C-alpha cells in the first residue's frame, strides 16, 4: 500500500537518498532535478492561461507552425520545449535531447560540457486541451549514451524502453505533480508553490490488478481491428455479458491525465492501431510517450503492451515511431492480449 509521508520528504532529499543508496549516479540526480525545475517553470506558464498571452497556435497569422508529427504546434508547445532545452544545456549531465517538437535530436552545444545521458520528452502532452483548460503534462525519458560520451545522433536514442534509467511525467492539473521512477517503484511528488519544491506525497504507487474502468476514444470504434472490437464489446456488455460486471469509461484525451488516474486508482488506457491511417502503427509515440509511461506503470505493478508484445521490448526503428498502447491494470491488459492472441491464431 502506498503511504502518506509526514514530514514531507522533498524531491531533492529523495534523489540524494537514492544516490546515497547507490541506485542513481550524481549526474542522473542532477538531470532529474533540472527537469523538475523546468517543469515548475512550465507549470507557471500553463497556469497563467489567457493572462500569459501564450494560448493558441504557434506560428504567424495565416500560417500555423507544424511539427514533424504534422500537428499544429501550440505556443505553449514551443515555449515548453525551449524551457526544457535551455534548462538542460549547461549542466554537463547530458549528451543530447530529443523531443516530439523537434525533427531530430539536439546535441548539447559545443560551448558546454557533455554528460553520458540522453533525454527525451514530449514537452506538453495533450496541448490541444490547453485552450479549454484541461490538465496537460510533460513526459520525459532518460537513456544512457551507448558510447559513454561524445556527440549523439538520432541513432544513439534508438534503444528499447527496458533500457530507460529513469522516466516520469509532470501533470499540470488542479495541483502540479511529478510522478517519477528510477527503476525502484513509482513515486508521486506534489509541487508546493510557496516553497517552490516538489514534496513526496505518494511513495510506491500501486495499480490494482483488476479494474472496472477503461479509457479509449470510442468514436474510432468502426476503425479498430477485430480483436479490439471484440474486447470493447465485452466491456460494453457489462454484467449481462461474458465479463459479468459493469464497466465505467473515462477519456480525458490527455494521456498524462488518463495515465495519472490509472496510477492512482487503476484502469486500462488504450490507444490502438486503427485503419484511419493504416500506415501508422498508432497515434502515440514509442520513445517519449509509450516507453516512459510503460516504465512508470510496470514499476507500479501494472502492464504495458502493444496488444501483442511488451512495450518496453519494442525495438525502435526511428525516433518518432508510433505504437499501439494498452496499459494499466495487468489482468485487464492480459485480457486484451488474449483477444489479440485468439485473432492471430495463437491461443
Ligand atoms: P484523440 C494528445 O493529443 C494525445 O497525444 C494524448 O495525450 C491523448 O491520449 C491522445 O492524443 C488523444 O487522442 O484522438 O482522442 O484526440
Automatic annotation (TrEMBL):
Binding site for substrate: 125-128, 217, 283
Location of the Fructose-1-6-bisphosphatase class I N-terminal domain: 10-202
Pfam short name (any one): FBPase_C
Catalytic activity: beta-D-fructose 1,6-bisphosphate + H2O = beta-D-fructose 6-phosphate + phosphate
Cofactor note: Binds 2 magnesium ions per subunit.
Ranges where the Fructose-1-6-bisphosphatase class 1 C-terminal domain occurs: 207-339
Broad class of enzyme this protein falls into: hydrolase
Gene Ontology terms for molecular function: fructose 1,6-bisphosphate 1-phosphatase activity
Annotated TM spans: none
Positions bound to Mg(2+) 2: 122, 125, 289
Ranges in coiled-coil conformation: none
Matching NCBIfam families: PRK09293.1-3, PRK09293.1-4
Assembly and binders: Homotetramer.
HAMAP family documented for this protein: FBPase_class1
Protein name, entry field: Fructose-1,6-bisphosphatase class 1
Originating species: Pseudoxanthomonas gei
Organism classification: Bacteria, Pseudomonadati, Pseudomonadota, Gammaproteobacteria, Lysobacterales
